[in-house]
Amino acid sequence: MDKLAITGNGPLRGAVRISGAKNAALPILCAPLLTREPVTIVNVPQLNDTRTIVRLLNQMGVTAARTETHRVEIDASTLTTPVAGYDLVKTMRASVLVLGPLLARWGEAKVSLPGGCAIGQRPVDQHLKGFEAMGATIAIEAGYIHAKAPSGGRLRGAHVVFDVVTVGGTENVLMAATLAEGTTVIENAAREPEIVDLALCLNAMGARIRGHGTATITVEGVPELHGGTHRVMPDRIEAGTFACAVAATGGEITLLDAPVHAMEAIFDKLREAGATITTQGNQTTVSRKGRLTAVNTKTAPYPAFPTDMQAQMMALNVVAEGTAVMTETVFENRMMHVSELLRLGADISLSGNTAVVKGVRRLTGAHVMATDLRASACLVIAGLCARGETVIDRIYHLDRGYEHIEDKLIGLGAQIRRLS
Ligand code: UD1
Q1: Widest CA span in the chain
Q2: Residue 266 in 3-state DSSP?
């Protein structure tokens, strides 16, 4: 298993290009299942998670391949088996996003239940509630969700009110609704920019969606969708991670192609912490020269501060002046990085999902273990700030969500080695 060895060596400087967004690419790579025509997706980040979706499509008989570094071409006319097996689903929960498109186009689908996850229980009850409202029958059999469209094979437009704001649930039901008979209204929908990107892709394929980016999305079902090309939006969490890193280490970096319009909550917190952020065209410069101040954060669905940035922000708070109260409200168990940060010398007390972080003058390098994707990014930032060497184990989590993170950080002056 690969490890990263990081030696803290002061401020970051230089420019870094932001990759396509993982969380937009994953649902968008499932969208071509809705049509028999070829779809081309560009700006797809090269990550283990995007490779997994392509493998999943291949297993179903779909012709899908990466034809260039960041281009994936998908032709779902060859689909033979609308089944997503446990082997791949267990490695990536987002695989459940094939369920909505399969059910809508094929009238039937079997997808393995994802099972447990390190950061929380993460049920899919809201996805299923949406499909049932559209007339589907759902059975859980031998660890699989077996979903069937009503007789005639076509889902019906419905009024779906989610009990909780769910990104994946909104995406799954949104995709299913594009081919349903009649109009679907999704209320209490998630408003994440990645959902807007998915809706733009679907509309380019002939769907009739409006209200994306608000809590009420309306979808007028159409009999079929057609092929097309879509460019995946840049990754706001990757951009936020680099911005947090330079705020923590000091220095100045330029983010090329960061989706600034989607990053207000992140930038607000970084400015409060003492960073200076300016944007000109596609270049956003983030610098921190003076004092770094600890900032309180509370995660919540978009447009609030994202749960996917909580861990990275904590890495910044552990070396800031003052005390920050950090509350996680989206997932039940997303504070596992706390005990690893303690190994580096951080001063944090944790009570349930609230961490009280007292800034310390210095961290010292140690062996730590990555427990999930964003926790890994937090440990990388902490390692960049620590005296001596930090070795991060289990970085396969990092490879799921960050494209060439160590090369990008080396380009900014960091001292990092991958130990295979
Ligand atoms: C997506 C993101 C993930 C991010 C999360 C929240 C992708 C691939 N992943 O995950 O990076 O951290 O949004 O912004 O885009 N819930 C239910 N029932 C459901 C569905 C969800 O109770 O049917 C709960 C979850 O347990 C969680 C909360 O709702 O507590 C939010 O989950 P959700 O928004 O669905 O997250 P994901 O789509 O899994």
Answers
A1: 67
A2: helix
Judge contact between 135 and 153, C-beta under 8 A. no
- Work out the average pLDDT over 23-46: 98
d(CA 242, CA 254): 9
DSSP helix/strand/coil, 92:
coil
Residues 6+ apart with CB under 8 A from 51: none
Q: If you ran DSSP here, which 8-state letter would residue 97 be given?
A: G
Tens digits of residue pLDDT in 146-202: 999 998 899 999 999 999 999 999 999 999 999 999 999 999 999 999 999 999 999
**Residue of minimum CA distance from atom 9 in ligand 1:** 23
Residue 416 — left, alpha, or beta (φ > 0 → left; ψ -120 to 50 → alpha)? beta
The one-character DSSP state at 321 is B
Q: Which amino acid is located at 260 in the chain?
A: V
Q: Let me know how long the chain is.
A: 420
DSSP 5-44: EEE--S-EEEEEEPPBPHHHHHHHHHGGGG-SS-EEEES-
Instruction: Say if residues 419 and 4 touch (Cβ distance below 8 Å).
Output: yes
Q: Is the dihedral of CA 349, 354, 356, 362 positive or negative?
A: positive
Model pLDDT for residues 259-280, shown as the tens digit of each residue: 999 999 999 999 999 999 999 9
What span, in angstroms and rounded, lies between the C-alpha atoms of 406 and 413?
11
Per-residue confidence (pLDDT) for residue 339, from 0 to 100: 96
CA distances from 6 to 192, 367, 371, 379, 410 (A): 33, 10, 17, 10, 10
Which mutation among 44, 164, 299 tests ligand 1's pocket best, with the greatest number of atoms within 8 A of CB?
Answer: 164
List, for residues 199-244, the tens digit of each pLDDT value: 999 999 999 999 999 999 999 999 999 999 999 999 999 999 999 9
User: Who lines ligand 1 at CB under 6 A?
Assistant: 23, 26, 93-94, 120-127, 164, 166-169, 190, 307-308, 330-331
For the chain, the C-alpha Rg in angstroms (whole number) is 21
